Amino acid sequence: MTFGLGDRVRVRTMNPPGHNRAPRYVRGHVGEVVRHVGDGRFPDESAVVGSAAHREDIVTVAFTGPELWGADAHAGDRVHVDLFVSYLEAPGERSDGGTP
Amino acid sequence: MSGSGHHRNAELQARVNRLLDLAEARGVITRPEVDARIEAFGDRVTARNGAEMVVRAWNSPEYRERLLADAGAAAAELGHAGGGYSSDIRLHAVANTPDVHHVVVCTLCSCYPLAWLGPPPAWYKSEAYRSRVVRDPRGVLRDFGLVLPDTTEVRVWDASAEARYLVVPMRPDGAETLPEAEQLDLVTRDCLIGTAVPRAVAM
Fold first, then answer.
1. In this predicted complex, what is the ipTM?
2. Pick from A23, A38, A80: CB nearest B162
3. Which of A14, B12, B21, B190 has the most other CB atoms within 10 Å of its CB?
4. Residues B31 and B63 in one domain
5. Which domains, ranges and CATH numbers included, belong to chain A?
6. B110: annotated active-site residue
């Protein structure tokens, strides 16, 4: 999966039993791709097989304060999180079965 | 030094000593090598490295441009190549402006731009900082004594993968007339994390 700068993405709603580096507070939330970080070993896999894990692209996703925390957050604030692309989906494809 | 630390947790110290014994017995590393590494952290791997990059950026628009485009290469220019544990670690610099303030965290563990800032302070690794700065960054900054105007937007960078972040604070008014060595003193570790800004210069 590839994403371009400015793309809206949703972090998949997921609860895998093993290691995972999508912080729980962004799962299910929609943000905007603002930077290509490069690639790295996919952590869910490298936690098990080490350097034999496949490599995957990482993008920085910007979430607005209100998207993550509701109306109590400052509307101008952003939280940037670096996410492996397989943690992400288009906002219209909801892995949690919810309404897009 | 490494074998006679002052750690308050005797059980942890015993474990570290046992690991060191095993590592030495198996030829992985020697105690003098461990000591050399710890000394390097104390003497050479400090927030002075990041401060040098910031001060260079303050005084050279060309360097600033290179720093914001490719911080790893810009760090290497000044001899702060980083390296260490993983070649996947990439440094990215984010610059404060009158409208935007940046602050860095790792909510999942304690990822930190160690090669450029030295070992992290204990609070950076605390659950209190890690859980609250993403939810209430202004409140956390206020606790650090940094009150931002409502018009300034806050950008929190959660270093959850291979990138490490370095904040480039704004040069305070009056600092441009100071020699570089004195400008360096203005750029503290917390300025590079984003929980402080360089103090004002008396004019």
1. 0.94
2. A38
3. B190
4. no
5. 8-89 (2.30.30.50)
6. yes
